[in-house]
Structures are given as C-alpha cells and as structure tokens.
Amino acid sequence: MEYIDIVHAHHSIIYDNTVYMYNLFGSDILSNHITIMHGFEDLITLLYKVHGFESPNMDVVHYNVLYDSNPPTHKSTILLGFSGGLDSVYNALKLRDEGYEVLLFHINNLNKAYPKEDEFAQRFAEHQNFEYITLDAHHLHKEYYIDNPLKNQLILASMIDCGIQYDIDIYALGADNNTHIEDAHIGMTVTDSAEVNQLFWKGVKKYLPNAELKLIPNDIKKYDRLKYILEYHNDALNDVYSCITPHRFNNMLHNNNEAKYNIKLLDGRCGSCYKCCMEIILLTELGYYNKDEKLLNHCWKILSDSKNSHRKDLFDKHIPLEIRYKNIMNYGS
C-alpha cells in the first residue's frame, strides 16, 4: 500500500527506493518478501529487527547509475532540509555564517499534526532572507506509527532528488548523531537515530560518491545552539518552532502559561510540552528569561513525570536536580 505522495518530485532511483521503504513501514505488519535497491539491505535489516521482525527475503536490484554533480563553484551551495525547529535554524544560520550559500528545503504537510511548522519555516526564510524550496506531501492512508522510521530519510531522498536536478552535491540536515537507536522510541524517534542516518547515507553514497552530508557536530548541544542564535542572530529566535503540542491546543496553552507564570513566551511555544520546557530551562540559564522557581518547577515536572517526558532516564524526578541540570546542558538533540 502507498501511504505518501510528494507532489512534483522528480523520481530519481534513490527517491523511488526510499518511498518504497517508507511505505513498508506504514503498517504494523511488515512484508516478509521485498524488492530493495542494492546498498540499503543493512538499513532494512536493522529496521526490521528494531520493530521486532525477522529480516525479510530480499530481491536486491543492482543499478549502474551514478549521479555526479558539476564541480562546485567558488562559493559552495548547500541544500538544507529545514523544519523550522531549533536544530535546522541553527544549522542554516551557522552554515551561512561560514560562507556557504544555503538553500532551505521544506516539505509542507509532512507533519500534518503540526501545520504551524510549515508557517514558521516559511516565516524564518522570509525574515532571514534565505532562498526557500518547498514540496507538498499528500498522505494517502493513515499510517500505523506517529513518525515513520524513514521520515527523515524520505526528506533527504527528496532533497537529493532536487539536488540532482540543480547540480548540488552538499546536503545538510538539522540533525546530529547524538541519538542512538537503543534510546529511540519505536513509532516516534527511530528516524532520528545515528544508525539509521548512517546506513541510509551509506546506501546513497553508492550512487552519489561525491555527495557530502553535513550534520551538526555531536559536541554542539542544544544549549550551544540556543546560545549561538542569541549571540549572533537574536532576531531569529522568535521564528523558531520548537513545540510538539498539537496545533489545536497551542494557543490556549500559550496564553494560559503566560498568564499563570507572568512570562512572555516566544511565538508558537505552548510552554507545556517537553521541547518548550527544555527551551525555557536553557533560556533561563542563558539569561533570556528571569529565573522563576515556579516556572522552572513546572518545566521539570513536564520533563520528569508527564507522558511526554521523552527521556526519564535523564530527567526523572528521582534524579537529583543538579544531575538533571547537568544532563540538560549536555543534551544533544
């Protein structure tokens, strides 16, 4: 069954193969016999294992196609997969500050529960004067998982599909290799894991040997990303979309938390999801917000014992507060 259609994609073999793999994981029952492009066997084997299935029988198709970009000009161009969140905003600004010409690439409606993501991504591009390339996702059937384990890889494959057309051979994501697959949540964060990214890129390199992928270095933590934006691009902070609360609740929670804690929250933040609460704690450490124990206790409560705690191994309420602070300062993604 087909679960997604990216409108106006050019359909390179890498893109078509990734859509095929994406569709495999639209259901909770995985096929035991598949046809896969050479180079991606290890990725499929890993993902089947993580989801509790034996590796399928694979008919492996070998292609002789090699895609090579034109030699880069004096100023390298990077195509950056852009969500509008903290990580991709940081990477866009940092790469441009380093002298690259950065083109932002965004797929509208891919995260259909978060329509503000599309709005904020375009808003950032306009306010910060980035060229902005968009495609539109159509969801054809309801998927079993909240986040398909190949969602980020589908974005990258769509970028590569575009890059082949425009002779771009440097790609970037607002991501790093901090999250390992054993720490990933099935149905949510497998696509973010280092192992999935590495094995997918290993397959890509068989067909794009000159391509380069720039991820955020592992030693640049969430604190460092916020600090960089505050120090060098303060006006961009309000255009970051760092909230995972469903769209229909965002404004209500935003207004309620502003009134309850006498705080001016940044646009788009609810103040009650784990991402917003992490941001509040870190921005307080950076001096952006005044220290307020009531607000900080609210944030730690969300991180430690709500259903959206995300990493209770780092932020559980039974962990001493000073250790939790140390953990959040070293938090990567």
Would you mind describing this structure in some detail?
The chain has 333 residues and is α/β, with parallel strands linked by helices. The protein folds into 2 domains: 1-220, Rossmann fold (3-Layer(aba) Sandwich); 242-329, no CATH class. Helix content is 42%, strand content 13%. The chain is built from 12 helices and 8 strands. The chain has helices at 13-24, 41-50, 86-97, 115-128, 151-166, 194-205, 222-232, 247-261, 274-285, 293-305, 312-315, 321-329; strands at residues 4-7, 33-37, 57-61, 77-81, 101-108, 131-139, 170-173, 212-214. It has a 6-stranded mixed β-sheet, sandwiched between helices. Strands 2-3 form a two-stranded parallel sheet. Helix 4 (115-128) links the parallel strand 5 (101-108) and strand 6. The mean pLDDT is 91.
